[in-house]
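About this split. The held-out portion is used to measure sequence recovery: a designer receives only the structure tokens and must propose an amino acid at every position. Recovery is the fraction of positions where the proposal matches the reference. Here is one held-out target exactly as it appears in the evaluation file.
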């Protein structure tokens, strides 16, 4: 089974999730966040290449730098998702709000605030990843490969001919 760039240890070392949380409660969220957000941005072909190299421990120095930015984004997104799924779980009696003898469960307003805060952190690292990838695109030939045709970053940045990155040129009509 592939590791989608972020491990349980990673989340617990960087303090995003405490050590007493069972990994089975949040590890599926890592795969979801990797596929739903990172793959869409960098493209399936490039994502698959990086994932294979990450799991085989054969990333280049340049690829490792990019993966580090991806990891922060994935981790914050997975933690945000965990804030909801750990607070409310689907059991045989339906959706159950978690309770604990040692603390009060947060209400939906508080959970939403925390979720939004974590998503802002993820978005920060996604923007950093985007800027890094655009600036260093020549270090990532698989990202630029024609087979990597579903990358939001690549498609947003290339001009209509597909040969140059667009720096935001526009027309103002007065």
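Reference sequence for scoring:
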């Amino acid at each position: 089974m592939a590791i989608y760039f972020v491990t349980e240890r990673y989340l617990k070392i960087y303090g995003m999730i405490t050590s007493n949380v069972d990994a089975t409660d949040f590890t599926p969220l890592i795969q979801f966040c990797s596929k739903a957000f990172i793959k869409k941005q960098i493209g399936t072909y490039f994502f698959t290449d990086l994932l294979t190299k990450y799991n085989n421990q054969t990333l280049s120095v340049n690829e490792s730098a990019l993966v580090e930015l991806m990891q922060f984004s994935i981790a914050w997104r997975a933690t945000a998702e965990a804030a909801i799924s750990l607070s409310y779980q689907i059991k045989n009696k339906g959706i159950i709000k978690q309770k604990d003898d040692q603390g009060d469960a947060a209400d939906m307003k508080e959970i939403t605030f925390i979720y939004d805060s974590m998503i802002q952190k993820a978005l920060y690292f996604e923007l950093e990843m985007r800027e890094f990838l655009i600036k260093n695109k020549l270090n990532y030939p698989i990202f630029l490969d024609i087979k990597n045709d579903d990358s939001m970053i690549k498609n947003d940045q290339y001009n209509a001919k597909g040969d140059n990155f667009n720096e935001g040129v526009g027309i103002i009509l007065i």
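Annotator remark: Helices lie at 8-13, 27-42, 44-56, 61-87, 108-135, 141-144, 152-157.
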